[in-house]
User: Fold this.
Amino acid sequence: MVSPIKQEHWLDENGNPAGGSSFGCGFAISWQNGPLNRGAKRKEPNGAFVENIIKAAIGRLEHYQTTKFACKENADALANLQRALACCNARTANREARQVEGTHQE
Assistant:
């Protein structure tokens, strides 16, 4: 049985994503709050990014696939998580090409 997940997702005064938290049995995520900026003004992350959480789930399913619990369903879940990660990475590459990555510019 999957336990419930409690989540809060915040917006800043301009309606931009501004952190939050997600937690449930065995995990707690504090989401990145605010942009990292660019160039000399670049900041260190203060929270998790969706890409990192997807990578963690991929790692766990890859581990399962090396055990007696390997199965088609895990392989399908892995493929979908890898597609999700590719989509997130494509979004980042697109934003970087437009030199808006790390900002709240669209």
Summary: The CA atoms of residues 22 and 58 lie 18 Å apart. Residues 50-106 form one domain. The chain has two helices and three strands. The mean pLDDT is 97.
